[in-house]
Design brief:
Negative regulator of class I heat shock genes (grpE-dnaK-dnaJ and groELS operons). Prevents heat-shock induction of these operons. Keywords: Repressor, Stress response, Transcription, Transcription regulation. This is Heat-inducible transcription repressor HrcA. Residues 103-321 form the Heat-inducible transcription repressor HrcA C-terminal domain. Belongs to the HrcA family. The chain is of the alpha+beta class and 337 residues long. It has three domains: 3-76, Orthogonal Bundle (Arc Repressor Mutant, subunit A); 86-127 and 228-336, GAF domain (Beta-Lactamase, 2-Layer Sandwich), CATH 3.30.450.40; 133-226, 2-Layer Sandwich (Enolase-like, domain 1). Helix content is 47%, strand content 17%. The protein has helices at residues 3-20, 26-32, 39-51, 68-76, 86-97, 102-117, 170-184, 193-201, 208-223, 235-239, 250-258, 260-268, 317-336; strands spanning 55-56, 65-66, 120-124, 133-140, 145-152, 157-163, 230-233, 277-280, 292-299, 305-312. Helix 7 (170-184) packs across helix 8. The protein is elongated. The termini are far apart. The mean pLDDT is 87.
């Protein structure tokens, strides 16, 4: 049997089923695709594909739909990823370039990726943002309470109210602030632990207990940025595709909301020669996503942070792969600037 033609028939079945959600028959394939063979030949090819487990019949008299194995063969045949349209590229650059800080960049990224793919989009916060300390302020509030404010090089404002035993007066607080700021300014957010000890040594002995507490609070604010976080958008798209799942979508929604499963899955995902990774259905068998597909890639320094989409196996893989890769590249560029 002609193997290339058989794979061409498989690709036609995948394309038709993805767009129609209806089982595909040989007559429809011949009518819609320039296969250059008769319906009888296509039926023979479909029989061979079914025997190989690439397609299946959902009903006794129905056409055929792709299986996970069939989707995998289809995805592996995608030699190159088509670029986004000019309008899509303008939408990405216009939305992301105008973001004012990291939080806004991440929120816009996940929303944009969901809109481009019509799937649930997930974006992991950068593992290492390269952010440094721009400014530190200490503001006395009620007796014994000090507001610690840390402003990053990307304009983010992090703050926490700290209970300080024997809090210094305004003059003492200004001295502590100066000492902490001198040590912390320009330091990476994730490397502020040593700031506490140096800041304490920089102030007079009477202020050192308060300085230790406040400098430690600054370090904690920076260390908190190491927490692995995911942003998610587009769960409504998943809800609209319930008919594509053999089981309830509840476990998938739970996995997305709890984040632990997704963070573990994303950490395991590399990327292929096309710059993306695709996990289809049962390839996610060890997770609640065994009924779904995940298209993801890395971004940022060493591609250590991940972004991607989650949706049914009946997914427009070429378009989704293109959008995921393009958004990741734009996000990497913005974070590098």
């Amino acid at each position: 049997m002609n193997q290339p033609r058989r794979l061409e028939v498989l690709s036609a079945i995948v394309e038709d089923y993805v767009h129609s959600r209806e089982p595909v028959g040989s007559k429809a394939l011949v009518e819609r695709h320039n296969l250059g063979v008769s319906s009888a030949t296509v039926r023979n090819d479909m029989a061979a594909l079914e025997e190989e487990g690439m397609i299946a019949a959902p009903h006794a008299s129905a056409g055929r739909i792709p299986t996970d194995k069939g989707y995998r063969a289809f995805v592996d045949r995608i030699a190159s990823i088509k670029p986004l349209s000019a309008a899509e590229r303008r939408a990405i650059t216009g939305l992301l370039d105008s973001a004012e800080d990291l939080d806004q960049v991440m929120a816009r990224t996940v929303r944009l990726l969901s809109q481009l793919t019509h799937q649930v989009a997930v974006v992991q916060y950068p593992v290492s943002t390269g952010e440094t300390v721009r400014h530190v302020d200490l503001v006395g509030m009620a007796p014994g309470l000090v507001l610690v404010v840390l402003i990053t090089s990307r304009g983010r404002v992090l703050q926490r109210v700290v209970d300080v035993e024997r809090a210094p007066d305004e003059i003492g607080l200004a001295a502590v602030r100066a000492g902490v700021l001198d040590e912390a300014r320009g330091q990476p957010l994730t490397e502020l632990t040593a700031v506490a000890a140096r800041a304490v040594d920089a102030v007079e002995p009477a202020l050192r207990p308060a300085a230790l507490t406040l400098a430690a609070a600054v370090a904690d604010l920076g260390a908190g940025q190491r927490e692995e976080r995911l942003l998610m958008a587009g769960t409504s798209y998943l809800a609209q595709s319930t008919g594509d799942f053999t089981r309830s979508i509840a476990p998938i929604l739970d996995a997305l909301e709890e984040q632990v499963v997704m963070l573990r899955l994303l950490s395991e995902i590399g990327e292929d020669s096309r710059g993306v990774s695709v996990r289809i259905g049962r390839e996610n068998a060890e997770s609640p996503l065994a009924d779904a597909s995940v298209v993801a890639t890395g971004y940022g320094p060493s591609l250590a942070s991940k972004l991607g989409v989650v949706g049914p196996t009946r997914m427009d893989y070429p378009t989704t792969m293109s959008a995921v890769r393009a958004v990741a590249r734009y996000l990497s560029r913005i974070l590098h600037e």
